[in-house]
Amino acid sequence: MVAVSCGARATEIEKRMAAIKTVGVIGSGQMGNGIAHVAALAGFNVVLYDVSADRVKSAMATINGNLTRQVAKKTITEDAHKQAIARISSTDNLDGFANCDLVIETAVEKEDVKRKIFHDLCPVLRPDAIIASNSSSISITRLAASTDRPEKFIGIHFMNPVPVMELVELIRGIATDDATFDAARGFVTAMGKQIAVSEDFPAFIVNRILLPMINEAIYTLYEGVGNVEAIDAAMKLGAHHPMGPLELADFIGLDTCLSIMQVLHEGLADSKYRPCPLLVKYVEAGWLGRKSQRGFYDYRGDKPVPTR
Ligand SMILES: CC(=O)CC(=O)SCCNC(=O)CCNC(=O)[C@H](O)C(C)(C)COP(=O)(O)OP(=O)(O)OC[C@H]1O[C@@H](n2cnc3c(N)ncnc32)[C@H](O)[C@@H]1OP(=O)(O)O
Ligand SMILES: NC(=O)C1=CN([C@@H]2O[C@H](COP(=O)(O)OP(=O)(O)OC[C@H]3O[C@@H](n4cnc5c(N)ncnc54)[C@H](OP(=O)(O)O)[C@@H]3O)[C@@H](O)[C@H]2O)C=CC1
């Protein structure tokens, strides 16, 4: 009996995995271009979308640049580069996702923006299509409930930079069914990534641990314990982190860092997650880190210069 039911389950998983051929990506920022890159390289057809056509164009240029670097380093062949580029198409409206088997939302970390995307997306999708969110922190159960298919909704949380980082978190909402989870696991494994399964609690595993550390580094700056250079040097040289916490905050995006801290603060109702007022100030100034050329460092010159 057991063997029969395992076999039947294996067939169902294989069917779902084989069913993912075309992947839609909503949002062509730093995460969207990375996800499109690794999915296309793994043999999936990719449809890329953003509210701004210019953003899609610059995402394509970034993907091409990163693939070219991989060819130069001999980690992929020129043929693999060409084939990956040929597998990526773009769309200027959500109708372009009608034939997708899986659509990954990776727009800004704002719940109202994501809910609106799902509201507009669901009517154009096939009923069997899976929807995933790359959210860093927001409840997958709550996002799923805003769609017409909570059982086919899942969190697939990539790390930045996507082509380099080994890990992807998988987060089931309360209604996510086994076939969706297995299909997501198959998709992530096909891209050569390792999986950590997280329960659906604010900011999941990586950001539950990482973001309070970054927020504390910003408090350390705010309270004058050290300047930007000292804090980053301390954690790079003293704790062997590849980037200092303020450099990493700029890399992630200060708007995203603040949104994650707000989700932790509201979701866990504990003052230890209070976003540092200095982080709020930087975001209010539009100093969002590397993507806006200014954050804890100023990136407009030849090399980054600390802003404090
Ligand atoms: C916020 C969330 O929801 C979750 C998150 O993602 S949290 C953020 C998680 N990410 C991190 O913590 C990153 C920490 N930083 C690092 O690991 C490293 O600094 C780094 C990998 C980004 C760069 O490493 P480095 O050694 O300083 O630089 P460098 O030698 O230029 O790059 C290493 C490799 O990464 C590649 N790379 C660097 N930046 C890249 C990018 N943005 N896109 C694609 N590839 C990139 C380089 O091409 C290089 O590839 P090879 O090994 O094939 O040569
Ligand atoms: N940055 C990181 O390190 C990580 C981020 N994430 C998550 O990934 C998601 C994206 O982050 P990231 O790529 O860094 O952010 P970016 O700001 O780099 O990119 C977000 C993109 O989404 C676009 N966008 C905004 N609204 C819409 C919409 N309605 N439809 C389609 N596209 C839209 C933005 O356009 P415009 O700029 O014009 O508004 C922008 O191009 C967030 O949920 C974030 O939490 C997950 C892991 C790591």
TrEMBL record:
Binding site for NAD(+): 27-32, 50, 109, 114, 136, 160, 291
Annotated ranges, domain 3-hydroxyacyl-CoA dehydrogenase NAD binding: 22-198
Residue span, 3-hydroxyacyl-CoA dehydrogenase C-terminal domain: 204-299
Gene3D superfamilies given in the database record: N-(1-d-carboxylethyl)-l-norvaline Dehydrogenase, domain 2 (1.10.1040.10), NAD(P)-binding Rossmann-like Domain (3.40.50.720)
Species of origin: Afipia clevelandensis ATCC 49720
Any GO BP annotation: fatty acid metabolic process
Pfam families, alphabetized: 3HCDH, 3HCDH_N
Family: Belongs to the 3-hydroxyacyl-CoA dehydrogenase family.
Name listed for the protein in its UniProt record: 3-hydroxybutyryl-CoA dehydrogenase
NCBIfam families: PRK05808.1, PRK07530.1
Keyword check for NAD: yes
Keywords: NAD, Oxidoreductase
Keyword GTP-binding annotated: no
Source organism superkingdom: Bacteria
Site residues, Important for catalytic activity: 157
SUPFAM superfamilies: 6-phosphogluconate dehydrogenase C-terminal domain-like, NAD(P)-binding Rossmann-fold domains
